[in-house]
Design goal:
Length: 358
């Protein structure tokens, strides 16, 4: 983890960015922050988030991650006050609340008591409610989360242009990672079939068919990503029949997984954190959508619309049924299954390096 105790020189702007979770939302900060540091070379940035997420920002200059221990010493109102005192000691001059939840509001309140200016993200709750409504749905593209982050920065006096390059550089592969991956001598495809909610996850029998077809492309390696004991077991079973399919679940630390992800040619992901982790490195990301929809603004960074595979919206007209995929009518949990393995394979092949039009 980066150092967390630097105090910057008087007169030097020092921006604090608050985003405690979730992984995808934190990863979406990375390209935005990278653009910010390039435009404002004298600006120092501290991001207060979970310590686990620190490697996301390793390659961005003048960015320090301050680990918030929200289940320990920074728990509750007393803990947040303690955290605010620690952060004040860094010489913070402005605060961007990119989370806008009770904890971030409390932390911001304590910091503002010292006269530090702050701005918060507008999550667009009303327009997202209209987008996910079953009656009188307003089906239109909403502002992206990346742009909502940029709006906070602009309101603090740091406008940026999201059309400028924001991708992070690839990581070198460590000796330990190479033990799992080998040297890159072919196209590398990542596949992350799981998601926090069942209606956003690709069914295992369809994942099996995708891997069966992909494995026949001998000039590719396929790496499977997931976490937790159950997912690890499933991914091992999925990979075991094939010589060029490898499960990385449970084998690498988070920062080591990022090394692999940054070197992928294509990442196949659900509407989940892995899509955003790959996109921040400029990797082509094929996103499979279930009951959520990119119109809600959570599409991966700098990915064209044709990198989104959507379910059959004629059969499932209420999509998106929720922003996060946790709410849906009966039967909609299977909507993502209308994205066939053949559709996935065809799209992957158009995105591989040998195809210049992907």
């Amino acid at each position: 983890m980066k150092a967390t105790s630097r105090h910057y020189a008087n007169g030097e702007d020092h921006l604090l960015i608050i985003r405690f979770s979730a992984m995808g939302d934190v990863a979406m900060l990375a390209p935005v922050t990278n653009i910010l540091t390039r435009k404002y070379p004298n600006l120092q940035i501290t991001i207060v988030t979970r310590g686990f997420f620190s490697p996301i920002f390793d390659n961005i200059p003048r960015v320090t991650v301050y680990a918030a221990d929200l289940k320990g010493q920074h728990k509750g109102i007393t803990g947040l006050y303690k955290l605010s005192r620690e952060l004040k000691g860094l010489g913070i001059t402005a605060v961007g609340d990119m989370h806008n939840v009770l904890r971030s509001k409390m932390l911001k309140f304590f910091l503002m008591a010292s006269g530090i200016k702050s701005r918060k993200i507008d999550k667009g709750r009303a327009e997202k409610k209209a987008l996910t409504a079953s009656n009188n749905k307003v089906f239109r593209q909403l502002k992206t989360t990346h742009q909502r982050y940029a709006d906070v920065l602009a309101n603090l006096g740091y406008p940026i242009d999201l059309s400028k390059p924001g991708k992070l550089p690839k990581h070198a592969l460590s000796a330990k990672v190479l033990e799992s991956t080998g040297h890159k001598e072919s196209s590398w495809i990542g596949l992350a079939p799981f998601a926090a909610h069942i209606a956003k996850a690709y069914p295992i029998h369809l994942v099996t068919e995708v891997l069966k077809q992909l494995s026949q492309q001998t000039q590719t390696k396929i790496f499977l990503f997931g976490g937790g004991q159950e997912e690890t077991s499933q991914l091992e079973s999925l990979a075991s029949p094939y010589e060029n399919v490898f499960s990385l679940a449970g084998k690498l630390k988070f920062e080591e997984e990022l090394q692999v992800i940054s070197n992928l040619d294509v990442m196949v992901s659900m509407d989940s954190g892995n899509a955003h982790l790959a996109a921040m490195y400029g990797v082509k990301v094929l996103t499979l959508w279930g009951v959520t929809h990119p119109y809600a603004g959570f599409g991966a960074y700098n990915q064209p619309a044709h990198h989104h595979l959507l379910p059959d919206l004629v059969k499932f007209p209420d999509i998106p049924t929720s922003v996060y995929g946790n709410k849906f009518p009966a039967g909609y949990e299977n909507a993502i299954a209308t994205i066939s393995p053949e559709m996935v394979i065809e799209k992957i092949n158009t995105m591989l390096p040998e195809n210049k039009n992907g």
